[in-house]
What we know:
The structure is a single chain. The protein is an alpha+beta fold. The protein folds into 4 domains: 29-44 and 309-381, conserved putative lor/sdh protein from methanococcus maripaludis s2 fold, CATH 2.40.420.20; 49-57 and 226-308, Beta Barrel (Elongation Factor Tu (Ef-tu), domain 3), CATH 2.40.30; 66-92 and 184-215, CATH 2.40.50.100; 95-182. The chain is built from 4 helices and 21 strands. A 6-stranded antiparallel barrel has the order 4-11-14-13-12-15. It has a 4-stranded antiparallel beta sheet with strand order 8-7-5-10. It has a two-stranded parallel ribbon with strand order 1-21. Helix 2 runs antiparallel to helix 3. The longest helix is centred in the first third of the chain and has 43 residues, at 95-137. The chain is rod-shaped. The mean pLDDT is 87.
Amino acid sequence: MAGNRIALWFSAAALAAGLGWFVWQRMEPPPVRVAVATVERTMVQRLVANTRAGTVKACRQADLSPGVGGQIATLPVKKGDRVQPGDLLVEVWNKDLAAQKRLAESQVAAAAARSSALLRQAELSRREADRVKQLKASGSVSVEALDQANTRAAVDQSQHSAAVADEEVNRDRLRLLDAELERTRLLAPFAGIVAEVNGELNEYVTPSPPGIPTPPIVILLDTSCFYVSAPIDEVDAAAIAVDMPATITLDAFAERRFPGQVRRIDPYVLDREKQARTVEVEVSFSVPGDSERLLAGYSADVEIVTDSREQVPAVPTQAVLDGGKRVLVFDRKAGRLQNRAITTGLGNWQLTEVTSGLAAGEQVVISTDRPGVADKALAEIEAAP
């Protein structure tokens, strides 16, 4: 009798345990599908990026206008033309100055001829005075004759000196007219391409009044060299130094990444209304051939490497939670997720260095925003696409 009760008790206990296991299995949610990444040793960089789109600029750009106002008489270039140093870009009407220059050249020639004639006269008078001096020594001429000869030689020498000075005055006048003529001609200061021409033949141009800028007649670009000017937040600017490596990306070239280098940092902070305070940083292209197909004005972004470490454990930054304090690790044996406290080092928006808490080969969850992804949750790895 007692044996039957014990058997019945064991049967009831087994039935209750089986029923409890069945209910527990029914109540626990199914495994959540997660995407994971494996902890690997790789290079991690600390990066600084621009806050707003940067701009591709030519290394040299000249906004050019004639030095004087007047009517455009010659305009031999048009937009898109390539020019060499010294090529004529614009010439303002200057026939009056050209005529004055021809007159000045004639005056210089006349003054030079007169100076040459007076030089010969002075030399002749000096030789005559020397002969009279020799005759005076032998008593053949009087003192008065010698005095007259010396005076005539001195006068002729003075006249020659005056003619030389007059010739130099005429040459100075000619140089002045050359300078005035030069102001009417706009010459290319360097080899480049004409980006803009703001003028037509026979139009009048006027110099900019003080404090009132006017559009340049010609904009010249040196397209053999380009760089990117990008605004960097003042908080990040202190970490940047000249010659730091950088990466340049351009919307016009899709996913292509150009190696670059910091070439200049503005020595002041820009404070613009309704915008963050920024520092303009210039980044040059490290490979000369990379700039062959560029156009000034392209929008660009830069990533400047301020620090770098190689062969350190790292995980995707999207896997790091609570400001770098923990990750969710996938336990393959248990098929569950578990919280893991970590400490981090360098990082960017792609990778974060893990200095402790994880070992190479472990898997961390990167799909942390999915419903059901939590500590101790059942999980299974989704198939890679």
